[in-house]
């Protein structure tokens, strides 16, 4: 059974780029366009990993990460932020919100897959 990855990004372009990379590597990709949809999918699908954008309409990425970590059934799911924001303060805030690491957009496909593999395996 392939591992499930939930991609949360309001930019359709991000889904067009990242979903095929994840799928070709043998993972099952699930997509959400906003925080509300992501929380619903996370609760129903229980992904093995969540890739999360920071700047989104409605619930922002960091706030969503904190909400995810507040659920007993979701708190052990690793969260990776994938965002254009890459200052030390941004990365620190992401880690404090509960993320395991940070990747910067535009993401290198090899870096993305190495990060995923390091966290959840193949």
Short description:
This protein is α/β, with parallel strands linked by helices. Helix content is 46%, strand content 19%. The protein has a single domain, classed as Response regulator (Rossmann fold), CATH 3.40.50.
What does this 3D model show about the protein?
The chain has 122 residues and is an alpha/beta fold. The protein has a single domain, classed as 3-Layer(aba) Sandwich (Rossmann fold). The protein is 46% helix and 19% strand. It has helices at residues 12-24, 35-45, 61-70, 88-97, 109-120; strands at residues 4-8, 28-32, 49-52, 79-83, 101-104. A 5-stranded parallel β-sheet has the order 2-1-3-4-5, with helices on both faces. Strand 3 (49-52), helix 3 and strand 4 form a beta-alpha-beta unit. Helix 2 runs parallel beside helix 3 (61-70). The N and C termini lie close together (10 Å). The mean pLDDT is 96.
């Amino acid at each position: 059974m392939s591992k499930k990855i939930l991609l949360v990004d309001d930019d359709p372009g991000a889904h067009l780029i990242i979903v095929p990379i994840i799928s070709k590597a043998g993972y099952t990709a699930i997509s959400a366009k906003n925080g509300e949809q992501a929380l619903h999918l996370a609760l129903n699908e229980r992904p093995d990993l969540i890739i999360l954008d920071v700047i989104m309409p409605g619930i922002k990425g960091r706030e969503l990460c904190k909400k995810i970590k507040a659920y007993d059934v979701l708190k052990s799911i690793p969260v990776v932020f994938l965002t254009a924001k890459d200052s030390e303060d941004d990365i620190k805030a992401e880690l404090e919100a509960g993320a395991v690491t940070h990747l910067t957009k535009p993401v290198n496909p090899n870096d993305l897959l190495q990060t995923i593999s390091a966290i959840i395996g193949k």
